[in-house]
């Protein structure tokens, strides 16, 4: 990731982000002036009209399912107001619990770690690809290239710097962690994800910052080779897993905001993720049908 081509991409991206910047500042000011609490959908007035804020992160609990072999979340109270005058907890967790980032370094020894991902990649027009009908019938359903092309036929070419999210409806299983992980009698896991061919299409034929899923893994559960992880992450893009509330977000036109982890050498980590849409976000890249030049293919 050190070629002049990459630097050119960074320059292109930064100039595009400059256009995003003014609205982003308005969004932050609106949050600061509001209650500070984020519900699934909050409506408040900001300059330019009302915005809808979607909280795309789940609350992490000790019961939150993790990939088999990973350490579940635990929390121990370290201080209480009654005894110490302040409240504090110690946490123990895998980086890959709850709604979390997969950094390129998760699957690429030369990949960037989450703490070093460019911050401009955390503000992106988001495309939501809904495969919930198919996933309801088939736990092994995957986002395929045709799903992306079908999205583009309705909403226009994926905008430059897009984040592409799969909505499968799988979060309805979270209250039953076993059914969310869904390990079959064959020992394989069964939940939806991105097909590696779709991942390859996105990183080589479109310009994306990352992909996200409302399941435990970017790859579908039955994957044996993590082909999607091995395509997206070594290409310098990031993943988001266990995303929440994607069913509430418009298929096109919303802006993703990722509050990523920043501990040193992070392979990933729990993240607070939002989608913002309506009002002042109208006209942002996600709502434009064909701003994607597609000229950023083959970045590695
Ligand atoms: Zn992960």
CATH first level: Alpha Beta
**Quaternary organization:** single chain
Overall domain count:
1
Distance between the termini: 7 Å
Topology:
Elements: H1 4-33, E1 41-46, E2 49-55, E3 74-79, H2 81-84, E4 88-92, E5 100-102, E6 123-130, H3 132-137, E7 142-143, H4 145-155, E8 162-167, H5 177-181, E9 193-194, H6 196-205, E10 208-213, H7 229-232, E11 238-241, E12 254-259, E13 268-270, E14 272-277
Parallel strand pairs: 6-8, 7-9, 8-10, 10-11
Antiparallel strand pairs: 1-2, 2-14, 3-4, 5-11, 5-13, 6-12, 12-14
Zinc ion is lined by residues 96, 100, 102, 241, 268.
What does the model show?
Helices cover 23% and strands 23% of the residues. The protein is of the alpha/beta class. The strands form 3 sheets. A 10-stranded mixed β-sheet has the order 1-2-14-12-6-8-10-11-5-13. The protein has a two-stranded antiparallel sheet with strand order 3-4. Strands 7-9 form a two-stranded parallel ribbon. A hairpin with a 2-residue loop joins strand 1 and strand 2 (49-55). It starts with a helix and ends in a 23-residue tail after the last strand. Residues 1-43 and 281-300 have low confidence and may be disordered. It binds zinc ion (ZN). The site of zinc ion (ZN) has 5 residues, from strand 5. Zinc ion binds next to strand 5.
